[in-house]
Write a sequence for this structure.
């Protein structure tokens, strides 16, 4: 009952607000999004901020792509920093370097679009609209690099608003409203969810799912992680996704496998939640299920095949011939089904993956993005799993291999420091041996 | 059940986090608040941000006033802007005025304490701690003007976080948890609440109370307004507070009287919510009780007597003699009980109040702060009420008179513009007449 | 978070309870459901009622069909009324007809299984288990008429517990937990829901769904009704179910069509909620959407074809030839697609349906169960809709025709009294005319 | 927001219902409570049950005591069992003793007022009204013993509705709505709560309070227990109630003291919840605070002084002289402050209390009602506490002594059986020794 009424009420208040705006305005008002934004930044905004903000939010929803782009350029040009004012403030500051002048300089350097966004945010749905603006912007930024300042400002603002302290960790299960569950199906980025039955298996008694939410986006997960409760470190993902597998009594599991982590909001790109999420879920699960002793991911190696295909000649201690044999074997698209082939290339392929993860770097950091993320969080590279993901995508990305990154709460900071200060890839001795290729 | 468990869990997670921090740190860690803040701003903060933030929050709670002040100076000096870096960035910008250099300049102008605060906010209770820091700072700023930059930064951050879009309007009534209700008793700033019985009367069927809340401070109202549902414009506050008065069926009321508005958080000083609150409550009540036709305050005139005592000679068109007679009459502390006196001075006193409200200004705005607030919101000065508040405080502030500011949704913007652009005090013709003193 | 913990806690308490039971019992306890029930009815039940009840609930969940039947016979034979005691009480009453003896007679006539059920209900899940027992019993009663007394007792008890005053009307929408939504898919009895997409369309902005819930069965709807918000009285159901149809702004609808009502709990058979549900939903929708002026069902005529196929010769004023022509036409399974046929038989078929609904009765009540239900509720037979349901089932049951029963709040009681006292079928003049077949 | 709207809606629906009733009724309706009840039991009740039930509930609220009594007699006389029908059914049953006739006999023995109550319960507030009817009845039954059948019927119905399985255990703390907290103040029956400050101390961090609620009476606790978390078995109640005592960190407590249990609803007299409450709270606290090892009451001995004052001559092994000395000493109203007196009578008084608790019985059960309750629950009589309650009431009831009843989950059933089967008072050896008076 309640929701319907309250939202109706809300609409009627907002409608009233807009009627009043129109009636109240002696002169005619502009109803373009840019016009309303201008009003919102002036004194009319002080009196009728909520109604104007609502109008901006509604108008944004009606724009086509060209108009959206036009609006972004409005943000860039018309409500950006005023260069003349900046110059004057710089000069004043250089003339007299006091706190007052420094404050003034900082003030003119903040583009008015930041205040505009804060006012748009007054409206119900304001935060969602701003996230949507950034999502659109992110998708256009390559072709429109002159929007970079706008992007920086939106990111800065959203980063402040989506501070970890404002996020809520929620467990997602079969009691969660459908409006949220369907978002999981939409946003799952690692192992596609193929419908409600598939989803249900992932929320069964021996599975867990956690997500971060922000109070202003109650129906939108920001990031979520899917966990399988198992016995022993899982080595392959297909059995975890299989509908037919027996369900395990969660009190009998000793290991939690994080087999999928998905960021949901393109509009929050570059604002990192994953670090917090994994650690908090580890703590949460430890409290829920004291029998859990091990926490590990089962992760893809998304950059491996791309890197491997570009190698030329020997790799590490592996001879050119041996490398070539592996490459050749992989050309057969059904290679993984052929026991003769797999018997032959398992060892060198695992060595190559270990080598790639341990030694291939870019700017002193691992080349592989997933590795970078987990090692940066303080996890340890634990095990390479032969044919852990034989989906089309798994074969294409990493010749079907998967990796476990192991989270040991007591080693997290130590590992993190070794990674940051000493550029060290913390790995199990097994992986270290493999990487030696000897 | 639930709360107890969840908060226990939370504590145990945080405790675990801190144990791990200590065990994890190869070298010994500093446990002063400044030391932990330094950690929080470096790479250790990246790995263990949540646990460090929690430690800062806990440590803040243990500081005495001297230590708090010391911490504020740490914020001012050690994590303020780096003047050398600013100078270099200014020079670079002047050498080449491009976007990149402008961005860099803006970046160095943001003091690291802002990022520090964002990280402290990671912890449960972080927002509350930062609001408490600002509260303490606000109480010290006069004697410590060199903390102004810190104050500006905290205010800027809190202003962004406490954006209207993140606030929730809640109705407060007898079903509200006691932990919130006792805050009303504590925070009521206009007409003191004398205990639970008094509070209960203010939440009875013919009363309403609304407050804004922020999700990160769920037990703390930010601002609240108390409303009486009555027939006709109320002229005096004592009957509204009287326990013995009959309760009115709210469906029979035609007028909502806002008789008290209290800001609750000194730490959010300068961040305005009242404007939004009143308008939204007007909309809310209109929807709840369609029979309500009038929305008005019953407000004090806090600056009147202070101003009046300083006047010298004639006031407006009122002769010096007449003014002197009024002043003399008010010297008797029981003057308001003496019909002969009241008969004599009612007219001139009302004229003086009208004159004060209409014509006494400071920087083109009304001298009276309450008047400034409501006129700035678009309300109209409606009526002066003789002996509307005969409490000790009411007599002292404004010789017992009260004022109604009338909110007419359809005139709000028009009134606001007249106020802002034309410096006009929008008032009823009755008050205009009184102010002429003729 | 919360749910998981609380339910864990709950399980651990119950487990502890059972351990204690076993440790506490000096002598060995029986662990058959019958044995535990015996304990529950004796002093051990007074001390450890909750744990024993929990055990019964768990045991019930493990029984196969034969064991369930055995348990029902245990209820019938071992914890039924004691005939000797009844005889003695009857004699005592006849000897002295006082209140005390009457009370004693009433007491021995209540079978101990009622108290047993009340004790089983102590356990979490107890109510659900008892509803499941009755569901099983209902499915067996035809073959096992000697369980009738058990059925009566369970029904009596459940009828008291599922009193309207304890039910909660809830709106079901896309924000409802999946665990409830999947029940709708399972329980829909009129127009099958073909999956989550179909369900979603039925919960879209121009649809409403309401259900009754009982606090002890929070995930189980007891009965639900699906409503379409439309303009004008809907005449056909397929367009209402069509995914591709445009959605209507609900504020523009003038009519609410109840197109499906489903009882969900076989275990509550014979306990009627539909009457309350429809009236309350009418009131609810009236308040939500003041634009709604008409409330009507779009209902099947489940008994029509069965009756029609059994008619022999003339029907009412319709000649034998004409009737035969209609019957013959319907033999072609695609008759409804053939315009020549439909042109020919529309009129007589509508007349026959009208005749059936108006005049065919059993024990003075309409033969058609849906008609009986709505007329008994005080609705009016409003309109017959040609080819309103051309699904396989619709054609089979009622040659594709549907009926609107119209709910006019102000006529409900009048209609109900006419129906009850005067055995009158309240119908529109159009239907009355059709039924005359002239 | 929500509540206001929903309850408004509810009222408007109910009002509409009543309007319709009046408009709908061809003939004029009776508006006495008895008249409406008659309607409710007939066919009008089938059509308009909800509106009629609402009317009964409202009318009940307007009755004065005489009218209430009149209504109870209406229940007794007019909607009681029909003696003629009973006689006929008895005869039919004796003529042919089959199941059908037994069922019919049982049916006529159920007074129609039971069905009437079930229908009154349709209305919002129906359950509360029925509980209020019973409350009134309970207060009148001594003077009106001819209402006993009505009382039995109401009790039977309420007992079924307030089945343990429908109750919810809630923790009461400072986050609980004020509307519930004020009920604690009202209902506390053992150690009076002297206002909100006193209440707050009882809900502080080292205190717990739990209550049972029924979904149909959401603001009304049925029974509640107050618990102090302490170190070691508490021996006196005044320190537990003292505002000034230091608060204990609950994680450091090893003992939970149940120092007050209060039944709240006179209308539910004779329906026992205490047994369930204590055991569930023990389980709850064990899970919340694993450090708790002991669970014990600190209980009054309400019948001691009454019994003692009636003893004549020797008691057990205690000589007449010694008994007389004790009696004499207690005549001084400040005896407990006089060390000479207390030194002298402590031993014999404790022996007398032990003797009273161990040996004074009525119908083989302990004379003391509190003792009967806890021993019946399976607790053990643990310790007698000298001057444990020196309040006026404590001195009057039990010469200032208090008793600990100890709950050991693992012994509960064993103790209960010893109590029930062997009439044994399970007591610590210390108390057994005392009772020997040697």
């Amino acid at each position: 009952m309640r929701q319907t009424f309250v939202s109706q009420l809300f609409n009627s208040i907002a409608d009233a607000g807009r009627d009043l705006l129109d009636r109240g305005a002696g002169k005619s008002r502009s109803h373009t999004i840019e016009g309303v934004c201008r009003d919102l930044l002036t004194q009319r905004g002080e009196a009728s901020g909520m109604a104007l903000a609502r109008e901006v939010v509604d108008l944004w929803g009606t724009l086509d792509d060209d108009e959206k782009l036009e609006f972004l350029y409005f943000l860039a040009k018309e409500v950006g920093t005023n260069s003349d004012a900046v110059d004057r403030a710089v000069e004043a500051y250089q003339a007299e370097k006091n706190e007052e002048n420094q404050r003034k300089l900082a003030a003119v350097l903040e583009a008015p679009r930041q205040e505009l966004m804060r006012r748009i945010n007054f409206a119900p749905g304001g935060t969602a609209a701003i996230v949507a603006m950034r999502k659109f912007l992110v998708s256009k930024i390559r072709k429109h690099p002159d929007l970079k300042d706008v992007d920086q400002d939106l990111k800065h603002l959203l980063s402040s608003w989506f501070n970890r302290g404002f996020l809520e960790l929620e467990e997602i299960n079969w009691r969660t409203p459908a409006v949220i569950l369907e978002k999981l199906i939409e946003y799952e980025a690692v192992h596609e969810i193929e419908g409600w039955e598939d989803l249900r298996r992932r929320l069964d008694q021996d599975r867990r799912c956690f997500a971060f939410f922000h109070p202003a986006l109650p129906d939108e997960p920001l990031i979520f992680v899917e966990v399988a409760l198992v016995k022993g470190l899982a080595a392959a993902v297909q059995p975890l996704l299989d509908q037919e597998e027996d369900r395990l009594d969660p009190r009998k599991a000793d290991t939690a496998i994080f087999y999928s982590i998905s960021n949901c909001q393109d509009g929050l790109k570059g604002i990192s939640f994953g670090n917090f999420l994994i650690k908090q879920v580890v703590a949460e699960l430890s409290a829920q299920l004291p029998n859990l002793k091990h926490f590990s991911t089962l992760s893809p190696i998304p950059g491996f095949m791309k890197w491997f295909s570009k190698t030329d000649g020997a790799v590490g201690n592996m001879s050119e011939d041996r490398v070539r044999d592996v490459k050749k074997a992989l050309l057969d698209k059904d290679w993984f089904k052929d026991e003769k082939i797999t018997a032959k290339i398992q060892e060198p392929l695992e060595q190559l993956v270990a080598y790639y993860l341990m030694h291939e770097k870019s700017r002193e950091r691992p080349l592989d993005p997933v590795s970078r993320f987990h090692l940066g969080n303080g996890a340890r590279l634990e095990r390479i799993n032969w044919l852990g993901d034989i989906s089309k995508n798994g074969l294409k990305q990493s010749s079907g291999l998967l990796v476990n990154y192991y989270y040991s709460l007591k080693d997290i900071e130590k590992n993190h420091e070794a990674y940051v200060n000493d550029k060290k890839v913390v790995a199990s001795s097994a992986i270290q041996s493999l990487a030696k290729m000897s």
Remarks:
- Chain B touches chain A through 73 residues (CB under 8 Å).
